[in-house]
Design a protein that fits this description.
Blueprint lengths: L1 H14 L20 E3 L2 H14 L8 E6 L2 E5 L1 E2 L5 E6 L1 H7 L13 E4 L8 E6 L4 E3 L2 H5 L5 H21 L4
Parallel strand pairs: 5-7
Antiparallel strand pairs: 1-8, 2-3, 4-5, 6-7
Helix pairs in contact: 2-5
């Protein structure tokens, strides 16, 4: 009997690793990299409009702003009739404006692009699609990758922070 216990005691640790989960989505195994998505322009602008409505800020008329001598952007949202606006940079927008609009800051700081020429007083908040990535799989979200809800809330917070800045500048 004692000999049998010794054999089991030696064999048991060697067999334990084989008993673990076989899926990488389960317990302790390495996870597959998350497939990241970005908010669509339609969804992002809906969230922006919701924040503006909750803050009682009307949207202004369509607005085209020069941001460099040879580059104009059609601003998605103008804040009332002020010189402040919000632009969602989609992949197509990024291809169109290239380096005229800076890439997102690595630390998550907001980017505000000033107008030039006749639009020198304009200040446009740039919301780049690539800064609003999220995972759609629960396993990745549980491991700390932002989910859609968290990403949407960050966009709302960024817009509220910009509105706070605008008010501080006397823009609203």
């Amino acid at each position: 009997m004692r000999r049998l216990l010794c054999v089991l005691a030696l064999a048991l640790p060697a067999s334990l690793p084989a008993c673990g989960p076989t899926s990488t989505h389960g317990g302790g195994g390495p996870a597959e990299p998350a497939e990241l998505r970005t908010l669509s322009e339609e969804r992002a602008l809906t969230l922006v409009r919701e924040v503006l409505a909750s803050e009682s800020i009307p949207r202004g008329a369509l607005w085209v702003v020069s941001i460099q001598p040879d580059t104009e952007i059609e601003v998605d949202v103008r804040l009332a009739s002020s010189s402040f606006g919000i632009e969602w940079i989609s992949p197509q927008d990024r291809a169109d404006v290239g380096e005229a609009v800076p890439e997102p800051a690595s630390g998550g700081q907001l980017r505000i692009v000033p107008g030039t020429g006749d639009d020198a007083g304009a200040q446009i908040l740039i919301l780049d699609h690539s800064a609003y990535e999220y995972a759609n799989e629960r396993e990745h979200v549980q491991r700390g990758v932002p989910g859609a809800r968290e990403t949407e809330e960050r966009l709302r917070r960024d817009v509220r922070d910009y509105l706070h800045y605008v008010r501080g500048q006397g823009g609203l």
